[in-house]
């Protein structure tokens, strides 16, 4: 059912907002999602979804401190929006950011939201409180104006520490709304929330109640929307994809999480593994994640903005599998293809002589040279320090211009060094 919530503010031209106060669209849901913290093991967290309601968006107020004036952008005022209210089940900023990431993946799959936080298509308000273990929850503050997923985690982490410091200094937390200042990485007080507002709620006379049919197997009619019929239209959701990737392609959980987080990478993976069935799936996923994704991150690039085609990637993976090229050459190809998008992989390999050297005689000559150049490492190796081999392998890589086949080099060096020992 829909209700009117009345309040007076410049961003609300009607003087009221249509929302759902008495009977929201859904209650008591649950969401489970992976939490990824750099340097830590991935774990799954569960959060209760208290309520999902439909309401009208307001306009956007812009306060210009320097000119001492306020502007209001009414373009989005009155548009429908979906609000999700979660229970206070999360413990860190990373957990909150991971929850929002999962929500974004789901909403994008459903094609109900672009989820572009920078455009305000998805907005997050974070409620934060601290308490001693076993005690009830403390007084909460609400942080608004969070403009990116990274800011969610930063704002919450900041606010947790601010509250801890305040209490440690003998102060008290006030129930207030604060704003995230991304530039200075801190939250600043906006207004207090101590006074309960009377919104003069009333049933919305222009919108009749929405009737849902919850019976399994039911069909939608003009008067009744069938939840079962709607759920049949739901595409595969991110968690199901992760499980499918693990089962169908024998990938590990971390790899599946990364692929699902980057839909374009997942599309490449499916495309390449389908067309190159002879290549182990791990070769493809390793290349896409360790090389392509890493290159994009380093170049501050979204994977979808990297102008390398699926066919080019396929050629590189094939080259890696057949040992025509090695990993260094594959990395160089990514860079070359990105900077000259019309070039072809085959031509680039020729032009830049990226072909891997597998000829055994040449490799033997390189290894002999490397043994001469690295007497210290050879000595250590003979004394039983197996790791010293890396230095000699590195020398071969240098001599060969990173082109020697490393598998053959290691085998050749081991044979040479071990027979010299005897
Ligand atoms: N003590 C607490 N500590 C941390 N979070 C809390 C605490 N109490 C409630 N919350 C969380 O605060 C949120 C309350 O959101 P809700 O939209 O219902 O209220 P509100 O913030 O008063 O509304 P509005 O955003 O319209 O001002 C919920 O996500 C809830 O889990």
TrEMBL record:
Catalytic reaction(s) noted: L-aspartyl-tRNA(Asn) + L-glutamine + ATP + H2O = L-asparaginyl-tRNA(Asn) + L-glutamate + ADP + phosphate + 2 H(+); L-glutamyl-tRNA(Gln) + L-glutamine + ATP + H2O = L-glutaminyl-tRNA(Gln) + L-glutamate + ADP + phosphate + H(+)
Pfam families listed in its UniProt record: GatB_N, GatB_Yqey
Gene Ontology terms: biological process: glutaminyl-tRNAGln biosynthesis via transamidation; mitochondrial translation
GO molecular function, one term: ATP binding
Keywords on record: ATP-binding, Ligase, Nucleotide-binding, Protein biosynthesis, Transferase
Family matches, as SUPFAM superfamilies: GatB/YqeY motif, Glutamine synthetase/guanido kinase
Protein name: Blast:Glutamyl-tRNA(Gln) amidotransferase subunit B, mitochondrial
Keyword hit for Acetylation: no
Domain Asn/Gln amidotransferase residue range list: 267-417
Family the UniProt entry places it in: Belongs to the GatB/GatE family. GatB subfamily.
A Gene Ontology term for the protein's cellular component: glutamyl-tRNA(Gln) amidotransferase complex
């Amino acid at each position: 059912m829909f209700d009117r919530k009345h309040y007076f503010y410049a961003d609300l031209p009607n003087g009221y907002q249509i929302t759902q106060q008495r009977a929201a669209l859904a209650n008591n849901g649950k969401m489970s999602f992976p939490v990824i913290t750099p340097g830590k093991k991935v774990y799954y967290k569960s959060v209760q979804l208290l309520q999902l309601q439909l309401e009208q968006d307001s306009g956007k107020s812009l306060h210009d401190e320097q000119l001492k004036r306020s502007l209001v952008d009414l373009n989005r005022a009155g548009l429908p929006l979906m609000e999700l209210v979660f229970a206070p089940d999360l413990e860190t900023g990373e957990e909150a950011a991971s929850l929002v990431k999962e929500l974004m993946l789901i909403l994008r799959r459903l094609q109900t939201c672009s989820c572009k936080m920078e455009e305000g298509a998805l907005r997050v308000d974070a409620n934060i409180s601290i308490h001693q273990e076993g005690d009830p929850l403390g007084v909460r503050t609400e942080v608004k104006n969070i403009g990116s997923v990274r800011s969610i985690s930063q704002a919450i982490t900041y606010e947790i520490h601010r509250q801890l410091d305040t209490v440690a200094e003998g102060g008290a937390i006030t129930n207030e709304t604060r704003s995230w200042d991304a530039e200075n990485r801190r939250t600043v007080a906006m207004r207090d929330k101590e006074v309960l507002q009377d919104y003069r709620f009333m049933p919305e006379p222009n919108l009749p109640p929405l009737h849902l049919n919850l019976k399994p197997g039911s069909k939608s009619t003009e008067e009744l929307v069938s939840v079962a019929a709607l759920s049949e239209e739901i595409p595969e959701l991110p968690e199901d994809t992760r499980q499918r990737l693990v089962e169908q392609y024998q990938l590990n959980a971390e790899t599946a999480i990364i692929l699902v987080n980057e839909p374009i990478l997942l599309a490449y993976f499916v495309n390449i593994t389908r067309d190159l069935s002879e290549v182990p799936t791990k070769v493809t996923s390793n290349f896409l994640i360790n090389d392509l994704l890493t290159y994009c991150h380093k170049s501050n690039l979204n994977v979808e903005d990297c102008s390398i085609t699926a066919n080019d990637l396929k050629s590189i993976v094939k080259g890696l599998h057949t040992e025509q090229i090695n990993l260094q050459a594959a990395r160089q190809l990514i860079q070359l293809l990105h900077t000259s998008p019309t070039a072809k992989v085959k031509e680039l390999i020729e032009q830049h002589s990226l072909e891997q050297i597998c000829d055994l005689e040449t490799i033997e000559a390189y290894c002999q040279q490397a043994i001469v150049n690295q007497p210290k490492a050879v000595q250590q190796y003979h004394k039983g320090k197996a790791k010293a081999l890396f230095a000699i392998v590195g020398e071969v890589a240098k001599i060969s211009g990173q082109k020697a086949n490393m598998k053959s080099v290691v085998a050749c060096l081991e044979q040479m060094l071990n027979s010299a020992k005897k």
